[in-house]
Amino acid sequence: MIYGYIRVSTDKQTTENQRFEIKRFAKRNGISINNWIEETLSGGIDYNRRKLGKLLKKLTKNDIIIASEISRFGRNMLQIMTILHYCLSTNAQVWTIKDNYRLGTDIQSKVLAFAFGLSAEIERNLISQRTKEALLRIKSEGKKLGRPNGCNNRKLKLNDYKEQIDEMIKLNFTQTQIAQELKVSRMTLCRFLKKSRKFIY
After folding, report:
1. How is residue 4 annotated by DSSP?
2. Which of 5, 56, 107, 146 shows a CA-CA span of 20 to 30 A to 14?
3. Residues facing 4 on adjacent strands
4. Is the pLDDT of residue 134 over 70?
């Protein structure tokens, strides 16, 4: 199967340019796109919560995903490397038009798959270390993390922690990491961020 993958960040952007590029590329190379995957959302959202995640789970050997450029898969290098590593580990191929990547089953791609996986693991460890260091600094300043004793109003609790949330956002904490540290559900945090007009991608 050959998949055309298209992603734009907002509904103010059009998918037609990417579709045109992929169609022109397919025609030039004598191939047909069997299925199109289109998404309108931030590339920073975990790929498992996107249509892309569902696509990755059903990939089989020699399937090909074609995108206009590598950045369509994710907003940060860690996410892109994780996605590419997953594709290559299932012997699927990833082709991009603007970047001219042809990642497949050859030995070079297998080396890249290893490099992607290793780099992603290193980046995850670095993020974890930065998270721990930031939390230690916050605690050393006498600030408490977590839900105050006897407090049942989570919105009030999050209002009390605006400064810490701002700091964690600046340090590129994910919504999941912030919610875990504040001991609230991710949905509670999302509502607070939306109300406060703060966004984490």
Report:
1. E
2. 56
3. 36, 66
4. yes
CA distance 25 to 141: 56
- Per DSSP, the residues of 80-144 read HHHHHHHHHHTT-EEEESSS--EE-SSHHHHHHHHHHHHHHHHHHHHHHHHHHHHHHHHHHTT--
Residues β-bridged to residue 93: 64
Q: d(Cα 57, Cα 73) in Å, to the nearest integer?
A: 15
Sheet of 64-67: strands edge to edge? Answer: 35-40, 2-8, 64-67, 93-96, 102-103
Residue owning tokens 């397919």? 26
- Termini Cα distance of the chain: 30
Amino acid (1-letter code) at residue 63: D
Separation CA 17–CA 80 (nearest Å):
21
Question: Is residue 171 scored above 90 in pLDDT?
Answer: no
Residue type, 139: K
